[in-house]
TrEMBL record:
Its cofactor is Mg(2+). It comes from the Bacteria. SUPFAM superfamilies: Phosphoglucomutase, C-terminal domain, Phosphoglucomutase, first 3 domains. Keywords: Isomerase, Magnesium, Metal-binding, Phosphoprotein. This is Phosphoglucomutase. Pathway: Glycolipid metabolism; diglucosyl-diacylglycerol biosynthesis; Lipid metabolism. Residues 42-181, 210-313, 324-449 form the Alpha-D-phosphohexomutase alpha/beta/alpha domain.
Amino acid sequence: MNWQEKLQEWQNFEDLDLDLKNELDQVTSPVDLEDRFYRYLEFGTGGMRGELGVGTNRINNYTIKRVALGLAGYIEEKGITACQRGVVISYDNRHKSREFAQWTARILASYGIKVFLSDKLRPTPELSYLVRHYHAFAGVMITASHNPKQYNGFKVYGSDGGQITLETAKRLMSILENITNEFTITAKSQSYYEENELITIFSGEVDQWYVEELKAVIQNQNLVAKEGKNLAIIYTPLHGTGKVLIKKAFSTFGFENLRIVAAQQEPDPNFSTVVSPNPEDQAAFALALEEAKENSADLLIATDPDADRLGVVVFKQNEPIYLNGNQIGVLLLDYLIQQKSTTNLGDYFLSKTIVTSDLGTKIAEKNGIQVRNTLTGFKFIGEQIELSEQKQDKKFLFGYEESFGYLISPFVRDKDAIQAATLLAEVALVCKLAGKTLLDRLDEIYQEYGYFVEDLETKSFPGKDGITEMVQLVERLRQKEISQLANASVLYKEDYELGTKKDLQTKKIIELTLPQSNVIKLILADGSWVCVRPSGTEPKFKIYYSVNAISKQSAKEKLQALKTDFHQMLTEI
């Protein structure tokens, strides 16, 4: 069926949701109509995410019901036990999130699958925890994480509380290919399934369960209970789901001097006070900074709408300093190592992504900790935890990625901003009691291990041929022999699509053990690197840079030289 036929199908459906019908009547551009109907929204290991609106290539009741039906079919294939173990469902503050969660619950229940449904919005990491707590077969989180207000999504979790594996995603995609009439998918009322004990609503008690587990994150509970009130913290949930758990956790552990930005504390699907509800974006901190300065705060923290990412600002002579994702991760890792110094650190492993700074690697290896690099995406870090538990070999110490995602205690199997905020507050408190700041500790780390500086760029390819142009450029980069960048020899080219690591001096090829992914990484003689990772769905790719040097200034200069040389090379190939 082509897009015109699919459009006609929607136009002819008499019971089309009224809001969607009105929206469809307003869309007149053939280009816009084609974009809305030329395909179904893609479903992958991260689930499904897209703009809200009318069409098969948008998030709406009908596309959500279609994916819910696909998930029901997958669970049915796994047998009666999988159906009885059931699915935990939660949702964030976005437009239609609650409605989508309820539809998902009803569709699953209509196939005899047990559902545990949240009574209100909750963070993504709490959903991950609850899948494990209920020993459920799967979990669903309705969220678009840190995307702008016009987005929503459907994220699927496995029985370990981690995002689904590639194998599971492929099977789900295969099932979805055979679901081509979203208008025939229906279910009885939610109350019917509740009365028949197929849908169970959970409420506030689960928050207390989560906070009890969170105690494992605090390294020195007595110190925090006694001195925590002396750390002045400003927090913004950026209109999302984080407030309830952060407030409950901080008051429980002793961080009593917590102020929540009033204008941003309540859930708001429009994210009215920010352009983008993303703690990676410095602009998102504007209101919180005003409050922090008025109240002489020691620490400013922000969580994204589903509370899986943490942003941090500290102050130097009353001026705000934004910590990047690598710096936050290194501070947490360093503190965990200090606190476990009396244990055998060789029993532990650190997991991080291949685009995350290698400063964490240097710190871990110096302390005898195994480092496990993964592809981009926290699901791969979760898989490493599960693998270790099955093998009963190394214990999980910490997992992080440069995009502001962290995990300390594996009772959750996805990035968890509540865990990260709790531990970072403890680190900041310990520093303050020693007459230092987080910046002072970061400088001490740099002095010991070298100065690491990172950057991230996005290169877009506009126009109808954008994706083709991007693919061709990446392929030329794949074929290009590069000997030098920024006055340093390029020692290795790692190509995760081919699964190879090539020594550019000896021409020897080593096989990579990570799953296949369209990523190319160039590693220089001094340990600096540049990595290109194309989007799988959009005409753009990300360029990650990481350099290190003996001083901050020389590291910055080296970064600029690397960026200049790499840009020049891209224009020449």
